[in-house]
Amino acid sequence: MENRDNYQPSATELEILQILWEHQPTTVRFIYEQISQKREVGYTSILKQMQRMTDKDVVQRELKGKTHYYRAIPKQAEVQQNLFQRFVNNVYQGSAMKLVMHALGQGQTSDEEVEALQKWIEAQKEQKDD
């Protein structure tokens, strides 16, 4: 696989990975059925994408009887971290603070949310003092 520390799936790859993380090991047919409930897609398109992902070592394929079963190689948390970091870098110039300030400014922040945020900030300060 490409450098796992920097792996950032395409939108279609991520859609497939999310199904795999929840249901692996599973078949192309199952993945196709899940995706086709949300949007129009051809079975062969999913099959080809799965073959490309196998070639890139993003998924591994195992033959059981006459059926191929697939499972994701990268861990969900790794991919989420990579995508999050790319998002913060590209949209908020690498500043998580800008992201948080933007998110808090988008709607009504409840008193409970503000209190939870204050507790989190205090915990972060205590960790830095240790």
What do you see in this structure?
The chain is mainly alpha-helical and 130 residues long. It folds into two domains: 4-72, Arc Repressor Mutant, subunit A (Orthogonal Bundle); 96-130. The chain has helices at residues 11-23, 28-36, 43-55, 76-92, 96-104, 111-129; strands spanning 59-64, 67-72. The longest helix is centred in the C-terminal third of the chain and has 19 residues, at 111-129. The mean pLDDT is 90.
How would you sum up this structure in a few lines?
The protein has 130 residues and is mainly alpha-helical. It has 6 helices and 2 strands; from the N terminus they run αααββααα.
Write a concise keyword list for the protein shown above:
two-stranded antiparallel sheet; 130 residues; 6 helices; Arc Repressor Mutant, subunit A; 2 domains; mainly alpha; elongated
Give the topology.
Layout: H1 11-23, H2 28-36, H3 43-55, E1 59-64, E2 67-72, H4 76-92, H5 96-104, H6 111-129
Antiparallel strand pairs: 1-2
Helix pairs in contact: 2-3
Largest beta sheet, briefly?
2 strands, antiparallel
Tell me the helix content. 55-70%
CATH topology of the largest domain: Arc Repressor Mutant, subunit A
For CATH, the homologous superfamily of the largest domain is named as: Winged helix-like DNA-binding domain superfamily/Winged helix DNA-binding domain
Radius of gyration: 20 Å
CATH architecture of the largest domain: Orthogonal Bundle
Q: Strand share of the residues?
A: 5-15%
Q: What CATH first level of the largest domain would be assigned? A: Mainly Alpha
Which structural class fits the helix and strand makeup?
mainly alpha
* Total helical segments: 6
Report the order of strands and helices: HHHEEHHH
- Which ranges are low-confidence, i.e. pLDDT below 50, for 5 or more consecutive residues? none
